Amino acid sequence: MLNNLSLLVRHRALIASLTGRELKARYRGSVLGFVWSFVNPLLLLLIYTFVFTVVMPGTRPTELEPYAMFMFCGILPWSWFSSSLLEASNSLVAGGNLIRKVLFPAEVLPITIVLANLVHFCLGLPILAAFEVYYRTPLHLPDLLWLPAIMLVQLLFTTGLALFFSALTVLFRDVRDLLSNLMTLWFFATPIIYPLSLAPERVQPLLKLNPFTHLAVAYQDVLFTPAPFVVRPGLLVLAALSIATFLAGHFVFDRLRDALPEEV
Question: In a designed cystine with 167, which of 94, 99, 126, 256 is the match (CB 3.0 to 4.6 A)?
Answer without folding.
Answer: 256
